[in-house]
Amino acid sequence: MKDNAEIPHMSQAQVSDLEAALAGAGFRGEVSRDSALREAMATDNSVYRIAPDLVVAPMDAADMVTLLQVMEQPAFARMPVTARGGGTGTNGQSLNAGVIVDTRRHMAGLIAVDETEGWAEVQPGMVLDDLNARLRPSGWFFAPEASTSSRCTIGGMVSTDASGKGSRIYGKTSDNLLGLELARPEGLLRSLDPAPDWAQPMLAAAEQAGRAGRAAFIAATPRINRRFTGYDLERACPESGGFDWWRLFPGSEGTLGLISAIRVKLRRIEPEKRLIVAGFDGIRAALASAMPLLAADPTAVEVMDERVQALAQEAGLLTRLPPALQEGAAGRVAFVFIEINGTAAEVDRRMADGLSILRGLPGLGAVHVAQDAEEIRALWAVRSAGVGLLGKVEGRARPVAFVEDTVVPPENLPAFLDDFLETLHTQGLEFGLYGHVDVGCLHIRPALDIDSATDRARLKAVSDAVYALTRKHGGIFWGEHGKGVRGAYLRDWIGAEAYAALQGVKAAFDPQGRYNPGKLVGGEGTILGIDTTPFRPFNAPKGDPLTRAFRCNGNAQCLSYAATTPMCPSFKASADLRHSPKGRADALRGWHRARAEGAPDLAQREADLLGVLDTCLGCKACASSCPVQVDIPAMRSAFLADYHDRHARSLSDRLVLAAERASPLTMRLAPLLRPVWPALVPLAERLTGSTDLPRRLAAAQPGALRLRARDLSGPLPEGTVILVQDWFTALFDDRVQRDVVAGLAALGYRPRLLEMLPGGKAAHGAGDLRGFRAMAGRLAALLQRAAATGAPLVAFEPAFGLMLRQEYARDGIAVPDVLMPQQFLRAELAAGRRFAQAKPGRARLLSHCTEATADPQAAADWAGIFAALGVDLQTPATGCCGMAGLFGHQTRHQPVSRRLFDLSWRDQMSPDLPVLATGFSCRCQAERLSGDALRHPLGHVADLLGPL
């Protein structure tokens, strides 16, 4: 097996010439050699890294044609061209040198839907969940249910012939396609239209090669549910005659050309759905349930082993399950998920059959039945989270995707698993396991340290062994996630005669061998190898502040398209991969390597990295929502600290840092500054490059409400609540101070505002870590004195309160418990406190994005508090409002800030009911962009209960 191909890179002169040629030809999309973007495109969800030379993002199919016309010029005719969608591939499918074509950024639209015939036509960069969200009102859906549905694209699904949950019933992507459109230098080739004259020779050559190898192809491919695809000669060359050329493309991974449009077959949404979650005492018993359960005709049967169950338990994902299912007698459970869909009568019958079968199976523990659609989604999310949870494992060796989508006939699963596990035990490897057992598909991720030469050799040895095992047990090595670099096995697997036919097809569509070269099909010595393709760096040096950047495994949960999920706002606004946690982690790794090696392009890399870090809103959703907690704001601070040890800060930075440090002095001078403040603001905006800064200083609260350091020498009156505030609310938001005080007082407490000391948030964000630690130390000492009084401490600004838990803890700065208002009041209710009843009513609370991800219970806590008052509180899902502290005030960020507000906040503004927000930034943003003055929830509580 020849698998030592060289990766051909373009020279800088060639890149420059191509950029100029594209501009001259009228290419309308983005063209970039930015190092941060190329680093982001250099990795996927695999262990490999191949940096492209240029990234282009076409606007539409016509732009794709323009790109290919330019690249037909002799100077560029052999440059590699590789399409990329969501970048969720587990085997380097879309990684290559040359030109990467980013379809996700602009070509992500829904072209047409026929609700009568049941089809939709989409651009290749459209995300699966986005498509199904748009189809849902019509009662249709696109069936392949991939676990990465929030970010995988339809083009990527076609290219890998993806499948997932329910494929026994729904089939793979290739089973749900009606046609394709292909971009060529000569124009567009549509399978649903007669082929133009220019395409006839190409199609004739491909058909001739395909028919010559069809019989050998069929003889080499097992007849199982997860059929082999990619250059599917069987379907492309039907026995009845004709040539369905587009059938060659599912599973071909971009090696035959650029897909510009896709027509998919839709299915009706089943009216009823149930989910059974069953706990077994071990993974073998769980796997053995598959064949018996098929008699109940379920839509899907999936498993999750004890290790993934334990990780899900630690992550708090199992709270909706009954305690008996959360932990077995030994604290470890293997889960089986059984979904049953259909009409009410069908579901009732199949449910009864399924439960009856389960009761007769050995090793069964507790069983839970979910009927509510939201609960079913939440429980399936537990299974879907398995891949990300495995990446969270600590240590240098972590579970790696390289043999994780093997498929064998379901009846062969137990024997296959025994052999598989023996292979892993022989190599001394740990693993995590989950999968679609109804179709015999297992996801097993052995734990490896890819930086280790020993483990890289193990990767090859295990790959070889498992490849042989799939053949022994009548299965397929690549059953779901595509082949990518594993295409090195294709020649041996399909046989010489069939492989020669595939080479003929490749030559017809791609005579120069330029489309995703090194993958699947090629000549001798042209295919990339399992252990010879460059690996991405796997671990940072011990104690390195950029450790989490190295732990990013490319799972790409941060690339979710949905506007109502907080992670990641800057990516949602731009669809630019570099402006995402994954992209920034990649760029940080690239800079780390360049800095260590003293690379000649270090200065340019730093400039590019500064650009992508500047667009981070610091919301920290990545620190909590990312499965491996890739905390970009924390790493940005570390990078900026290093950078500004070597480079002077801007005037704007210095002024903001000085304003934070001097905020206690500003408060003392407020009586003198208040009259002239409106005149000072325009000057401050010019000097700091800001807009819409607060136009007035907060009025001082009555002395009886203030709590100075000297007042902390003894106990405080019963019912006292000490309110801890940040410098922005202290200086600029006297209304929220009054609201919080009034709300707590109305509930029967004695609120006092603690003397304000800055916490260092601005300093930390700017990488002034010495300044941060100095301010944090002073505040921590004050908080310790306040806690010694015995009164509870409550912070009412989410970003500030969470900083005390996150940044302070990470830096080893000890502070007492400082609760958020809803946490304090929830605990009071749990302890038996009763609140006065308000007049029944409704209100709407819009969550602070950092709080929503760091404390997912926050909205429910507020809803419970309002319910205790007799008020219905709506808590709709929203993303980031777009302000995020100083970000939304900076002039350069106005387009992104306003775009984010429009994505999920503007539609929540309502004249019909009170709209509330816990965050200072959120209230500022809503008022400046919609004119709505939102209240803090405690302000509304005060209004509801009236004056005491």
From TrEMBL:
Cofactor(s) needed: FAD
Swiss-Prot/TrEMBL keywords: FAD, Flavoprotein, Iron, Iron-sulfur, Metal-binding, Oxidoreductase
Domain 4Fe-4S ferredoxin-type: 607-638
Any GO molecular function: D-lactate dehydrogenase (NAD+) activity
Domain of life: Bacteria
FAD-binding PCMH-type domain sequence ranges: 48-269
Pfam family, one: FAD-oxidase_C
Gene3D superfamilies: 3.30.465.10, 3.30.70.2740, Alpha-helical ferredoxin
Gene Ontology process terms (BP): lactate catabolic process
Family matches, as PANTHER family: D-2-HYDROXYGLUTARATE DEHYDROGENASE, D-LACTATE DEHYDROGENASE
Name used for this protein in its record: FAD/FMN-containing dehydrogenase
Organism: Salipiger marinus
